[in-house]
Design a protein that fits this description.
Number of helices: 4
Number of domains: 1
Strand order of the largest sheet: 2-3-1-4-5
Distance between the termini: 42 Å
Low-confidence stretches: none
Strand content: 15-25%
Oligomer: single chain
CATH class: Alpha Beta
Order of helices and strands: EHHEEHEHE
Helix content: 10-25%
CATH architecture: 3-Layer(aba) Sandwich
CATH superfamily: P-loop containing nucleotide triphosphate hydrolases
Radius of gyration: 15 Å
């Protein structure tokens, strides 16, 4: 296993409302960094981060998953978090160990409840907003 200097390790949480595409974004990151040979799909039940039988059955993230990948000599520990309020404690746990967060929003739905809650609950955590699903009908940036 490769050893990384501490300055080359990033811990990032993907957060946002359910259904915004956080798990699909993780799959794209893994594929584009060469960590996987294919992009898994939530609907097919073959994603790296949603592996529990209940997650596959419901097609939602229930527990946070740590998914490491390497990019430009940096190890990026991506934490795919649940988007539904029933599992918010998983988001809170993940936020204790991350350096920053990517708030994933759907271009078709806009700002939703879980997005606002995460933004307000962690005001000091550096954030970037990722607008997903721009190719969908009724997308409104």
């Amino acid at each position: 296993m490769k050893v990384y200097p501490s300055g080359n390790i990033r811990n990032v949480a993907l957060v946002g409302h359910g259904g915004t595409g956080k798990t699909s974004l993780v799959e794209a990151m893994l594929f584009n960094t060469g960590a996987t040979k294919r992009i898994g799909k939530v609907d097919d039940g073959n994603t790296v981060s949603d592996y529990l039988p209940e997650e596959i059955k419901r097609k939602i993230t229930i527990s946070s998953s740590l998914v490491p990948c390497e990019y430009r000599e940096h190890k990026i520990n991506v934490i795919d978090t649940p988007g539904y309020s029933d599992f918010y404690f998983e988001v809170v746990g993940a936020m204790r160990v991350v350096d920053s967060m990517v708030i994933v929003m759907s271009a078709t739905a806009g700002v939703e409840v879980q997005t606002e809650i995460v933004w307000e609950d962690f005001p000091d955590t550096p954030k970037i907003v990722f607008i997903n699903k721009m190719d969908r009908e009724n997308a409104n940036f």
